[in-house]
Design a protein that fits this description.
Low-confidence stretches of chain A: none
Helix content of chain B: under 10%
Low-confidence stretches of chain B: none
Strand content of chain A: over 45%
Largest interface: A-B, 28 and 25 residues
Radius of gyration of chain A: 13 Å
Radius of gyration of chain B: 13 Å
Largest sheet of chain B: 6 strands, mixed
Mean pLDDT of chain B: 92
Structural class of chain B: mainly beta
Distance between the termini of chain B: 37 Å
Order of helices and strands of chain B: EEEEEEEEEEE
Number of strands of chain B: 11
Mean pLDDT of chain A: 93
Helix content of chain A: under 10%
Number of strands of chain A: 11
Shape of chain A: globular
Structural class of chain A: mainly beta
Largest sheet of chain A: 7 strands, mixed
Oligomer: heterodimer
Number of helices of chain A: 0
Shape of chain B: globular
């Protein structure tokens, strides 16, 4: 039972470089989410996708783009990385069996922008 | 902006003692959830309480919800070293089932 898988686990980038964070879930969930976690600030929602083919902005979308490639995969792209994007990024998915379903999280990607 | 604020920010107790952490939020909610995060790992769902519920139990966990005060508490009884982690509350307040997370309580259990 893999659940939510994120790759890579660690990455160091230089300012201005681009990269894509990958996320895949094997639970047949419709909803997927990208968060960033910074010290003392909890998790903040970057983008989410309620179903394949749809994406919506969260609380902190600036500087990011997302792609819901299919039902399993939801990627996050940094087009031109900035030091302010140094963070730990978490992907999550959620089941659809009525309301009150929990979110399931991957183990994160630790990203440093120099 | 953060919907939930947690108190205390950090808590250290002896193994076997009970740990209580609190969460306050700002708007009406559909439900409130508690998650645990071990160091270097993702969040794991612990328990969910609906807005029309006042108390819920799961094993050594007890959650209360006071919608009039917009607050919740998580009680962990008979703590164990393995309970050392950060604990986050999260509120579901809208129609699109997004969660808004609090800033977390870092719990340390001293053996």
């Amino acid at each position: 039972n893999a659940g939510v898988t994120q790759t890579p686990k660690f990455q160091v980038l230089k300012t201005g470089q681009s990269m894509t964070l990958q996320c895949a879930q094997d639970m047949n969930h419709n909803s997927m989410y990208w968060y960033r976690q910074d010290p003392g600030m909890g998790l903040r929602l970057i983008y989410y996708s309620a179903s394949e083919g749809t994406t919506d902005k969260g609380e902190v979308p600036n500087g990011y783009n997302v792609s819901r490639l299919n039902k399993r995969e939801f990627s996050l792209r940094l087009e031109s990385a900035a030091p302010s994007q140094t963070s730990v990024y978490f992907c999550a998915s959620r089941g659809d069996r009525g309301r009150d379903q929990p979110q399931h999280f991957g183990d994160g990607t630790r990203l440093s922008i120099l | 902006s953060q919907q939930g604020e947690e108190d205390p920010q950090a808590l250290s107790i002896q193994e076997g003692e009970n740990a209580t952490m609190n969460c306050s939020y700002k708007t009406s909610i559909n439900n409130l959830q508690w998650y645990r995060q071990n160091s270097g790992r993702g969040l794991v769902h612990l328990i969910l309480i609906r807005s029309n519920e006042r108390e819920k139990h799961s094993g050594r966990l007890r959650v209360t919800l006071d919608t009039s005060k917009k607050s919740s508490s998580l009680l962990i009884t008979a703590s164990r070293a393995a309970d050392t982690a950060s604990y986050f509350c999260a509120t579901d307040a809208g129609s699109n089932e997004k969660l808004t997370f609090g800033t977390g309580t870092r719990l340390t259990i001293i053996p």
